[in-house]
């Protein structure tokens, strides 16, 4: 820097003070960190361009005069106080948005000035302040911050925060404000960090004492006052439902404001103050209200939860959880299906209804937790625990007559062999069983019964498709893997064992069947592994005496498999036998019957030429001796064959029905068994319906004697209430009883109103 040398000015002179003030107000822009010499060059350039004072500050004129450091330090304090006092005087006449704008502008200029002065007076910080550190002197930057806090910020802080809160209130009333002003204001409070100020010291967040003391606390107090002004009347009028609803709306609104106008660390203190002021002191009545809401006010419950979830450390949320789970349990038990004691209901129909009922309530509970409680894991686990305890309880097991695990397996069996099952509903129906399976405590029982039913479906060919069977096994396996290990030994391992086993069963049943041909006989067999098909119980009657053709076929199969031990399952066999009935009046004389091996062995006694007479008669004991079939099995098969009218019972024993007659030439005995069973059930249902009509008729007569005249709907309701503990009075049942009484002229319809009945004495 080329310039003429001049005498060094006195630090206390007015010329130096005037020069420094002018330099600080000049257009200096900080682009990068600079050395003290570079700052002095900038100041000299500013002075040379703006005025010809005759002074030139040398490169080391300020930074090397250590003996004048104390005087320079106090000059800096006086200079700052003068500037801040001038700013305060200008701010004193401002308010609202103009005050905030002016303050933020001055704060930005102050931050720039602090950086400049700190670099200008580096020698004070590095030499004199360090030497005097044990005294009360602070570095230049800290000194300026202290002066800003004491002489400008503190006197106008209340007006600043009040102006900000006024703007926020205006926004609450749908006003339009410059929200960035408030954001910049609270950030300036966070940036202001004077040291050694006990009045702003906090034990936590110690660097934000000014922000907490002068902005956060007044802001929270203002929010509490605003909320209280809106709900005070509701609270005093004891309108607790409306109080909670309004409070929820206000809390959501204020939390949105807080996310914008408070730093993130301030949200917890705000929530704590709202909790203390508006919820904790009303815990008892809120608990009572929540108990009622669980029963009949889901909307109110959702709003209450949104507030009460703020209290995870308090008992109120636990109370809500307990009430919800208890109500869900009572709701399930209220209309839970019970297997009728009289046994009139079909077990299949009951199984479908029971699993569907439990699964629907389970899904409803889960959906309610997602909707009302935002999928709260604590609520979800409590509900899962309740559901598991419920379906494994002795009470429900007594109602169902079977364990829930077995019921789920029976349900799967019904779905997988029902002709009404389609690709559209198959997965949904199976998932109903999985909801119960997951909650069952005896999953081993489920696997056992599922394996048993799977083997029967495969052996008896009652499956819908193999694809359904494979999909079902995969769904069960995936469900088992999703279950958390709750102390049960290797759930995943148990599932894997059964998964492999079930796949092997399908593979073996799908394999090509061995085939043999004999004279007048063709035979094929499914060869299955005993260790895989362990759920199939072995026949007690293995060594039965078969007809010659079947016996030869069995020998051929033994030879085919290298004389390996083959354990025949006779009850699962299917054979066709042709029987001639010369005295039949049907257009056919020769009929073909589809039988099992036991039935073939028994029927052969009456049809083979070796019979002692043309019309042989056998007792059960003689059949047992000839065929080596157990008496119990003989009796069961004879019941089927006599109901099919192939054989008949006489006083002497059993003989062939020589007059057998049928419009079909091929008859499947197993289907006849199902038809007979269905007819017996229908007959029983008719008898039950007739008895019910008698009871309903008696009730109607009794009521008509009392009322003389009564409307159709009222009579139906009264009869239903009288019989409700015994059976359900349906409208068809009621109309049948009414029709019977009208025909017998015990009652008649009113001539003016046909829906009114009159009693005829």
Characteristic terms for this protein:
11 strands, 761 residues, disordered N terminus
Question: In summary, what is this structure?
Answer:
The chain is mainly alpha-helical and 761 residues long. Helix content is 63%, strand content 5%.
Task: Please outline the helices and strands.
Blueprint: H1 14-24, H2 36-50, H3 69-91, H4 96-120, H5 122-131, H6 140-172, H7 179-191, H8 209-236, H9 240-261, H10 267-278, H11 283-296, H12 298-308, H13 315-334, H14 347-372, H15 377-391, H16 394-400, H17 404-417, H18 426-439, H19 443-460, H20 466-482, H21 491-510, E1 515-518, E2 521-524, H22 548-560, E3 575-580, E4 590-595, H23 597-607, E5 617-618, H24 620-627, H25 631-643, E6 647-649, E7 654-656, E8 666-668, H26 669-707, E9 709-711, H27 712-723, H28 731-743, E10 747-749, E11 756-759
Parallel strand pairs: 4-8
Antiparallel strand pairs: 1-2, 3-4, 5-7, 6-7, 9-11, 10-11
Count of helical regions = 28
Low-confidence runs of at least 5 consecutive residues: 1-14, 23-34, 42-67
- End-to-end Cα distance, whole Å, is 135 Å
Fraction of residues in helix: 55-70%
Give the biggest sheet.
Answer: 3 strands, mixed
Q: Which strand order does the major sheet show?
A: 3-4-8
Cα-atom radius of gyration: 48 Å
Please explain how this structure is put together.
The structure is a single chain. This protein has helices at residues 14-24, 36-50, 69-91, 96-120, 122-131, 140-172, 179-191, 209-236, 240-261, 267-278, 283-296, 298-308, 315-334, 347-372, 377-391, 394-400, 404-417, 426-439, 443-460, 466-482, 491-510, 548-560, 597-607, 620-627, 631-643, 669-707, 712-723, 731-743, and strands at 515-518, 521-524, 575-580, 590-595, 617-618, 647-649, 654-656, 666-668, 709-711, 747-749, 756-759. It is mainly α and 761 residues long. The strands form 4 sheets. The protein has a 3-stranded mixed sheet. Strands 5-7-6 form a 3-stranded antiparallel sheet. A 3-stranded antiparallel sheet has the order 9-11-10.
């Amino acid at each position: 820097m080329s310039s003429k040398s001049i005498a060094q000015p006195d630090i206390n002179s007015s010329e130096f003070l005037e020069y420094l003030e002018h330099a600080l107000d000049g257009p200096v822009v900080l682009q990068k960190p600079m050395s003290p010499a570079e700052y002095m060059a900038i100041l000299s350039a500013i002075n040379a361009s703006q005025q010809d004072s005759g002074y030139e500050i040398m490169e080391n004129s300020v930074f090397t005069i250590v003996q004048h450091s104390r005087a320079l330090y106090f000059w800096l304090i006086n200079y700052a106080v003068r500037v801040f006092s001038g700013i305060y005087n200008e701010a004193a006449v401002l308010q609202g948005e103009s005050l905030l704008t002016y303050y933020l502008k001055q704060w930005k200029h102050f931050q720039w000035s602090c950086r400049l002065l700190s670099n200008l007076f580096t020698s004070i910080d590095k030499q004199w302040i360090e030497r005097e550190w044990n005294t009360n002197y602070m570095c230049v930057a800290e000194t300026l911050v202290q002066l800003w806090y004491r002489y400008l910020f503190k006197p106008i802080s209340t007006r600043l925060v009040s102006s900000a809160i006024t703007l926020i209130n205006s926004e609450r009333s749908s006003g339009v404000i410059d929200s960035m002003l408030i954001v910049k204001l609270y950030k300036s409070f966070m940036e202001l960090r004077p040291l050694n100020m006990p009045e702003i010291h906090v034990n936590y967040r110690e660097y934000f004492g000014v922000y907490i003391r002068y902005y956060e606390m007044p802001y929270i107090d203002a929010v509490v006052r605003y909320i209280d002004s809106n709900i005070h009347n509701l609270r005093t009028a004891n309108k607790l439902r409306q109080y909670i609803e309004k409070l929820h709306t206000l809390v959501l609104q204020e939390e949105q404001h807080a996310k914008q106008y408070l730093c993130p660390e301030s949200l917890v203190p705000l929530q704590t103050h709202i909790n203390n002021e508006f919820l904790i002191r009303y815990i008892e009545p809120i608990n009572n209200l929540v108990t009622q809401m669980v029963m009949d006010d889901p909307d109110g419950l959702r709003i209450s939860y949104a507030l009460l979830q703020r209290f995870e450390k308090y008992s109120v949320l636990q109370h809500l959880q307990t009430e919800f789970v208890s109500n869900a349990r009572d709701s399930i038990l209220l209309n839970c299906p019970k297997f009728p004691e009289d046994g009139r209901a079909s077990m299949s129909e009951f199984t479908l209804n029971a699993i569907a009922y439990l699964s629907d309530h389970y899904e409803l509970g889960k959906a309610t937790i997602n909707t009302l409680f935002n999928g709260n894991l604590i609520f979800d686990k409590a509900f899962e625990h309740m559901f598991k305890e419920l379906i494994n309880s002795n009470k429900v097991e007594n109602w169902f007559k079977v364990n829930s695990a077995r019921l789920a397996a029976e349900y799967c069996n019904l779905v997988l062999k029902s002709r009404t099952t389609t690709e559209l509903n198959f997965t949904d129906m199976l998932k109903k069983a999985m909801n119960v399976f997951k909650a069952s405590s005896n999953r081993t029982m489920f696997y056992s019964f599922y394996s048993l039913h799977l083997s029967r479906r495969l052996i008896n060919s009652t499956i819908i498709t193999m694809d359904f069977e494979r999909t079902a096994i995969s769904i069960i396996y995936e469900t088992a893997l999703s279950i958390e290990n709750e102390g049960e030994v290797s759930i995943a391992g148990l599932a894997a064992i059964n998964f492999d086993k079930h796949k092997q069963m399908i593979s073996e049943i799908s394999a090509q069947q061995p085939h043999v041909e004999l004279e007048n006989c063709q035979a094929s067999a499914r060869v299955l592994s005993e260790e895989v098909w362990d759920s199939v119980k072995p026949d007690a009657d293995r060594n039965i005496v078969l007809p010659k053709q079947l016996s030869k076929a069995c020998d051929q199969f033994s030879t085919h498999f290298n004389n390996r031990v083959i354990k025949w399952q006779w009850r699962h066999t299917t054979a066709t036998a042709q029987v001639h009935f010369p005295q039949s009046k049907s257009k056919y004389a020769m009929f073909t019957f589809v039988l099992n091996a036991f039935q073939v062995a028994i029927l052969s006694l009456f049809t083979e030429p070796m019979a002692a007479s043309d019309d042989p008669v056998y007792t059960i004991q003689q059949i047992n001796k000839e065929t080596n079939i157990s008496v119990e099995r003989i009796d069961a098969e004879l019941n089927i064959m006599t109901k099919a009218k192939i054989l008949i019972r006489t006083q002497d024993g059993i003989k062939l029905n020589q007059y057998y007659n049928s419009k079909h030439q091929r008859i499947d005995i197993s289907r006849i068994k199902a038809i007979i069973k269905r007819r017996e059930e229908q007959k029983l249902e008719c008898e039950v319906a007739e008895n019910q009509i008698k009871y309903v008729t008696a009730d109607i007569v009794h009521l008509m004697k009392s009322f003389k005249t009564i409307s159709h709907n009222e009579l139906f309701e009264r009869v239903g209430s009288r019989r409700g503990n015994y059976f359900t009075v349906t409208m068809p049942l009621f109309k049948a009883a009414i029709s019977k009484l009208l025909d017998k002229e015990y009652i008649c319809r009113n001539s003016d109103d046909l829906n009114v009945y009159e009693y005829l004495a």
